[in-house]
Backbone:
């Protein structure tokens, strides 16, 4: 009755969210008094499994198979189904990555079990676990109890501080799976990027980021003026880039860039979790939004509730005065 | 080709939302509803696939009686017919329970494609499509940006993290969850709205499907999120607030 955390790697490179999921697993393991174990899938993964063994786990399962070299939902689901049926963990945790979103619901369904996806916190009294999730794009939270076992959950980026490496290493146990090429229906091709990025938002000190509140492309000069006054890079939330109002390379969020400036101005951005994960590392966050209940205010140091078309020009004027 | 598209009705995007008095769900009085935005993109992709391949687009929607409004909207935009799995007002199901009902209602349809949005804007589990594919034995791909039919297969462009993409080839039948924002959504024409009134909506009460649709995920407590940071809200008119903000940034945060 262990807590099993499935870590994610691609070609020997970690998805760092894996270690946050491990920290979440640690919290449950300590609370219910169960061993914390990790599993890694792939082909030729001796180096990463060895490394994972140093992260405070009791055991690492190495699920190494040629058919797991490239991720496929059929391959990963079949392999993890065999591991879980054999080891019978009580809790199975994942980092809430795009890959996990692609296969974990399928895996849980194979056990006839629900899946508490995208968890931002875990509440426990030592017996009962409640997973905290966001509803309505972050406007409300819910404590969610899972009936029955095993319990499947995935952990949102930034919700837990990543587990730290230790000196001692746990044993790595190979787990042999039976996979056949005929089981795998999808044929993935090589991942690619559309174009070289010419803007590195990750290096920017000050970022002015704009969202749906700007309403139309012709209004962009309003925020451009603010970026210019601050000497800031201009960025945007997803809908702005989807509409082609700003290039994709200026998008901040889970599907865009991750930034950590000294100051982040979120202008007309409501603060959906997909955006927040991209800017959580900002030192100071300023939010300007007309909706006082917008989730962005929960992560803001300073907020102005008001019409951005009035507030931003006034702000530009004040900044020019302050800098003069 | 038969293309099924699964749509959901959710509270309108700009709604002010409050937990209900016993903290189990939200207060639904005075809410207006709309089609879940990601599903609107799935519908658009379905209609474009039909334009390319011929065949029919069938809408399936699980929701209370009010969801017929969203179904009519999909029909007005060009879907050919609809299946409405009707649940009582206030019923909140997790993705597994929802997908079990959807699977039962459409298993006889034997469609080549099923499209869904990649998540709902209300519960946001982001799972219904993937679970549905597993229950029906369909291959699937998520977060799909482009769909290129190739006879008995389909090549899709998937979005990965950090600006990466990947093309994947899958055999039919297939379930795809569609990324939002990729294509421009069409409006319903007056003619479309008129025609929609004559299109078939087959209503099935969820209880008639004979499926165990108990939710394994229980919402024990619904509440407004606590602020993770001590945020200072600067008040006054635009000019006053801007002035206060610049002072704070200059002297307190020392960033300008």
Residues:
């Amino acid at each position: 009755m262990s807590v099993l955390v499935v870590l994610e790697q691609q070609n020997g490179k970690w998805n760092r969210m894996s270690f946050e999921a491990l920290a979440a697993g640690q919290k449950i393991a300590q609370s219910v008094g169960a061993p914390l174990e990790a599993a890694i899938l792939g082909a030729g993964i001796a180096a990463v499994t060895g490394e994972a063994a140093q992260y405070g786990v009791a055991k690492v399962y190495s699920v190494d198979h040629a058919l797991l070299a490239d991720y496929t939902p059929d391959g990963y689901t079949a392999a993890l189904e065999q591991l879980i049926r054999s080891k019978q963990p009580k809790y199975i945790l994942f980092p809430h990555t795009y890959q996990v979103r692609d296969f974990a619901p399928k895996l849980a369904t194979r056990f006839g079990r629900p899946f508490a996806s995208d968890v931002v916190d875990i509440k426990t009294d030592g017996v009962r676990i409640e997973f905290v999730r966001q509803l309505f794009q972050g406007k409300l939270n819910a404590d969610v109890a899972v009936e029955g076992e095993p319990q499947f959950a995935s952990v949102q980026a930034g919700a837990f501080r990543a587990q730290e490496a230790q000196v001692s290493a746990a044993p790595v146990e190979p787990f042999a799976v039976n996979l056949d090429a005929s089981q795998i229906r999808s044929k993935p091709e090589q991942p690619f990027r559309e174009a070289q990025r010419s803007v590195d938002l990750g290096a920017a000190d000050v970022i002015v980021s704009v969202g749906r509140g700007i309403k139309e492309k012709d209004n962009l000069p309003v925020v451009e003026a603010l970026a210019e006054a601050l000497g800031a890079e201009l960025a945007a939330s997803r809908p702005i880039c989807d509409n082609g109002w700003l290039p994709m390379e200026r998008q901040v969020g889970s599907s865009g860039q991750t930034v950590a400036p000294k100051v982040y101005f979120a202008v007309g951005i409501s603060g959906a979790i997909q955006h927040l994960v991209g800017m959580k590392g900002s030192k100071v966050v300023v939010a300007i939004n007309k909706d006082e209940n917008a989730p962005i205010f929960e992560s803001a140091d300073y907020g102005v509730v008001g019409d951005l078309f009035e507030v931003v020009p006034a702000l530009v004027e004040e900044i020019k005065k302050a800098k003069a | 080709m038969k293309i099924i598209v699964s749509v959901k009705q959710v509270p309108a995007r700009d709604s002010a939302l409050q937990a209900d008095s016993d903290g189990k769900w939200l207060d639904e009085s005075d809410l207006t509803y709309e089609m879940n935005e990601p599903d609107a993109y799935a519908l658009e992709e379905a209609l474009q696939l039909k334009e390319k391949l011929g065949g029919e687009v069938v809408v399936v929607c699980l929701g209370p009686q009010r969801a017929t409004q969203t179904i009519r909207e999909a029909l007005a935009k060009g879907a050919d017919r609809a299946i409405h799995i009707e649940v009582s007002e206030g019923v909140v199901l997790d993705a597994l329970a929802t997908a079990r009902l959807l699977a039962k209602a459409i298993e006889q349809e034997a469609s080549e494609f099923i499209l869904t949005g990649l998540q709902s804007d209300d519960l946001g589990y982001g799972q219904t499509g993937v679970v549905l594919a597993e229950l029906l034995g369909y291959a699937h791909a998520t977060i799909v940006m482009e769909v290129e039919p190739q006879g008995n297969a389909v090549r899709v462009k998937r979005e990965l993290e950090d600006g990466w993409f990947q093309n994947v080839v899958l055999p039919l039948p297939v379930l795809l969850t569609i990324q939002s924002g990729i294509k421009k959504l069409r409006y319903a024409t007056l003619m479309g709205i008129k025609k929609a009134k004559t299109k078939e909506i087959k209503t099935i009460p969820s209880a008639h499907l004979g499926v165990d649709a108990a939710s394994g995920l229980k919402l024990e407590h619904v509440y407004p999120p606590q602020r993770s940071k001590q945020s200072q809200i600067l008040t006054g008119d635009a000019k006053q607030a801007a002035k206060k903000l610049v002072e704070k940034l200059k002297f307190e945060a020392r960033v300008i």
